[in-house]
Amino acid sequence: MTKRTGPLAGKVALVAGGTRGGGRGIAVELGAAGATVYVTGRSSAGKRSDLARPETIEQTAERVTAAGGLGIPVRTDHSRPDDVQALVHRVATEQDGQLDILVNSVWGGDPLVDWERPLWEQDLDTGLRLLRQAVDTHIITSRYALPLLVARRSGLVVEVTDGNTARYRGTLFYDLVKSAVIRLAVAQAAELKPHGVAAVAITPGFLRSEAMLEHFGVTETNWRDGVAQDPNFAHSETPAYLGRAVAALAADPTIMAKTGRALATWGLYQEYGFTDTDGSQPDFAAHWAKNLADQHGPLGEPL
After folding, report:
1. Does pTM top 0.70 for this prediction?
2. C-alpha distances in angstroms, 121 versus 59, 75, 112, 124, 169?
3. pLDDT in tens, 175-212
4. CA 49, CA 129: separation in Å to the nearest integer?
5. Contacts of 50 (CB under 8 A, 6+ apart)
């Protein structure tokens, strides 16, 4: 077995919702830093989720290993407590009780978001399903995984969200989900602090996910062709940028100083110096302040 190196060598991470997008970027970059990463989600080679997308947890795990870590895919429905309990039992058994990093990145809510209508015109069952999919899953996962971190009296919990301010996010259920995820980080931080475990929320800027590339009809190779449709796309960032932010946080020996905060890639790159895959350092907050604030108002104050 090849000896892994890097600032997170010897660390064990669980990335819930690591199939694609930000979760995949985080899993791969934790692997690049040397970690063993359990990659979970509902989309596997053997069975796809109801989203019917092509990305799988096995593909992500392979990228984790190729990056220098060890990727372990485990198909898990994080809305099912029994699934999550079995997952955590497996991690504890295989890693002698060790878990250092928990990333709650479960989402899968794009088809459930109604961007066009106000609350009183929306389908209630669909909205409540979004809450179940994108908030309850985080709570269930933390409920079963946190005892492993508490027992070691160290570690980091990362809640992945959209935005790090109180600014309204365009439609009620989406806004409620993303704000609630930030509050989950704040509440977990308060309960975990006496045990030496940190919890933060983190947001990317304009994330150039697989779904976003498809939306613009481009690939990562020619993504700049999408700028003609939306000039803001020029300031987008890859999932790796978010992943490198999380890897930097996980390797920070002073991480407890940040516990309970809502963080963003556009602030963390300035502190840790990481870059995107092309060597750039996207800063969507700076772009917003310069080009969008007059039309849409300020991005907001960090929570």
Report:
1. yes
2. 39, 36, 14, 9, 18
3. 999 999 999 999 999 999 999 999 999 999 999 999 99
4. 15
5. 42
